[in-house]
Amino acid sequence: MIDRHEPDGGGPRVSVDLSHHTGLPQTAISNILDGIIRWTGYATSWFCWFFLVAIIVVNVGMRYFFGEGRIYFEEAQAFVYALGFLIGLSFCVQNDSHIRIDIFHDRFTPRAKAWIDFFGILFLLIPYVLVILIYSPSMISYSLQVTERSASPGGLGFPFYTIWKSFMFAGYALLLVAAVSRLIRASALLFGGRHLGRDTRE
User: Fold this and answer.
1) Is residue 12 situated within a structural domain?
2) Domains contained in the chain, number
3) How high is the pLDDT of residue 189?
4) Residue 181 is assigned to a structural domain of this protein
5) What CA–CA distance (Å, rounded) separates 62 from 60?
6) Can you give the pTM of this predicted structure?
């Protein structure tokens, strides 16, 4: 448990429980990779919020003021949600803000947590991401060849479904970058002779 407050000392002091986080040292390479993930995450967040609010406002306005609804607005809303989740995966891995369901994790030492991250990323996360990255290009190519479009009347047409599937590839590529960065940081703690007794995330 740590306390966070405003830099000038005048703001409220807020207690934040970071016991489930695995504090890991930074390296030159991980700083570069983390910077890419953070920048992409923040940019995507603004993009998604702006377009999601705009789509919802327009859709609701047309429904209640003009008595008309548009299926393509509903599908576009789902696509923006999907984009946020796909990019958010890498952001959560990078800053260790994903949900852990291991009830024993909080009781482990920082070094034991680093071992869990190391083996989990190396043998579970990275192989899974590689499978998606290997097989998704063929799915994107097929979608492009058949000019895939919505099966619902009035839904989104070509090439929106192909673009969405391309976002899936991009999201998992970023997830691989985040996984490699976190693997490097875990390795720095385990094999670099550096011990970390507290969370160093900003």
Assistant:
1) no
2) 1
3) 92
4) yes
5) 6
6) 0.80
Residues of the chain with pLDDT under 70: 1-21, 193-202
Round to whole Å and give the CA distance between 188 and 27.
Answer: 8
Q: Taking the mean position of all CA atoms in its chain, how far away is CA 30?
A: 17
CA 134, CA 167: separation in Å to the nearest integer? 15
Q: Angle CA(49)–CA(158)–CA(176) in degrees, nearest 5?
A: 55
Structure tokens at 192: 């670099």
Work out the angle between the directed axes of helices 160-191 and 126-145 (0-180°, nearest 10).
170
Residue 102, domain member (yes or no): no
Name 191's Cβ contacts closer than 8 Å, sequence gap at least 6.
none
Which is it for the CA torsion 129, 134, 137, 138, positive or negative? negative
> Residue 87 belongs to what domain range?
27-96+108-191
Structure tokens at 130: 């590689």
**Tokens standing for 185?**
């940081």
In this structure, what token pair is assigned to residue 42? 């923040």
